[in-house]
Amino acid sequence: MNAPLVRAENVSKKFLHEGREVEILSGIDLEIAQGEMLSIVGASGAGKSTLLHLLGTLDLPTSGRIVYEGQDITHYPSAKLADFRNRSLGFVFQFHHLLPEFNACENVMMPGLIRGAKRATLQTRAESLLREVGLGHRLTHRPGELSGGEQQRVALARALVMEPKLVLADEPTGNLDSKTSEAMHALFFELNRTRGVTFLIVTHSKELAGLMPRVVHMRDGRVELDERRDVAPAPVEAAPDAADPGLAAPASDLDPSRPHG
Ligand SMILES: Nc1ncnc2c1ncn2[C@@H]1O[C@H](COP(=O)(O)OP(=O)(O)O)[C@@H](O)[C@H]1O
Ligand SMILES: [Mg+2]
Predict the structure, then answer these.
(1) 226: how many CB neighbours lie within 10 A of its CB?
(2) Which atom of ligand 1 is nearest to the CA of 47?
(3) What is the pLDDT of residues 33-65, one digit of tens each?
(4) Which of 78, 107, 145, 158 is 20 to 30 Å from 97 by CA-CA measure?
(5) 43 lines ligand 1 (CB under 6 A)
(6) Parallel, antiparallel, or unpaired for β 198-202 and 37-41?
């Protein structure tokens, strides 16, 4: 039997606020299978971002466990956890957090550069990813020379450069107009289909939630409803200059622990 990609087990989170403990998440149980597409929805303050941070190992639960492929990673030492996060998870936030002094390609390469991966391999992969998200003609543009939607697509390519199994996105289209959002939503489904990437997307977008085969509804720090339904596969619009087939070198090429050359 295959372990789920990630499992939150009876996860709670409390914060101290003005000397008082406030429970933000209470007894969350959630399993996500490899290859799933799911959204988390709920009113502002329901605890969606807090849960995403815990699943993303950016913060620790007060109690409960976070288990990836059967491995309890909750209490990994911080360096080991950072390494796990860098290799296994990709993040997209509402604001792109691109580095303004680097161009699109360099921004996408950044997670690998930080890990000391081989530059040439990273560059090939970054360029392929940028083509996949429809930005093959914007490789050397800096963030300030890109539209909001283009910036967010660079951020998506950056999230994928280490070939993570899971991408965690927190209102990734919250800052985009509806047409640009729709193009981004189509990209999530395309990348799920072509690369098998699992997406967990916190969203207020009814359009996106409506496309999702699974929608987890949160309320007051709990899972109120875990809704699964049949949805027609999203129509996939090919990016203007999509993917050359020979792309993506195997992940091992990016492994800095392997000798280069
Ligand atoms: N570091 C923190 N300290 C205290 N309270 C926090 C902290 N982070 C979030 N909260 C509170 O937790 C609740 C849930 O926050 P959040 O997970 O950001 O909700 P959502 O993403 O669903 O809008 C909110 O009431 C917020 O004020
Ligand atoms: Mg939030």
Answers:
(1) 13
(2) 17
(3) 999 999 999 999 999 999 999 999 999 999 999
(4) 78
(5) no
(6) parallel
| CA 259 to each of CA 112, 116, 249, 252, 253: distance values in angstroms, whole numbers, following the listed order | 15, 12, 16, 11, 9
Residue 113, phi-psi category: left (phi > 0), alpha (psi -120 to 50), beta (remainder): alpha
10 Å CB burial of residue 222 (0-12, 13-18, 19+) is middle
Domain positions in the chain are: 35-45+78-254
Predicted model pTM: 0.88
Q: For residue 14, how far is its CA from the centre of ligand 1 (angstroms)?
A: 10
Integer Cα distance of 122 and 103 in angstroms: 14
Output the CA 22–ligand 1 centroid distance in Å. 10
Q: How far is the CA of 60 from the centre of ligand 1 (A)?
A: 14
Q: Is the pLDDT of residue 165 over 60?
A: yes
Establish whether residue 21 lines the binding site of ligand 1, counting it when its CB lies within 6 angstroms of any ligand atom. no
Whether 54 is in the pocket of ligand 1, judged by its Cβ within 6 Å, is no
Q: Which atom of ligand 1 is nearest to the CA of 52?
A: 17
Residue pLDDT, tens place only, 84-136: 999 999 999 989 899 999 999 999 999 999 888 999 999 999 999 999 999 99
Nearest ligand, measured from the Cα of 24: 1
E strands present in 104-179: 166-170
Residue whose Cα lies nearest atom 2 of ligand 1: it is 15
Q: How far is the CA of 7 from the centre of ligand 1 (A)?
A: 21
Q: Which helix (H) or strand (E) holds 227?
A: strand 222-228
196 to each of 58, 134, 192, 193, 217, how far by Cα in Å?
23, 19, 5, 5, 24
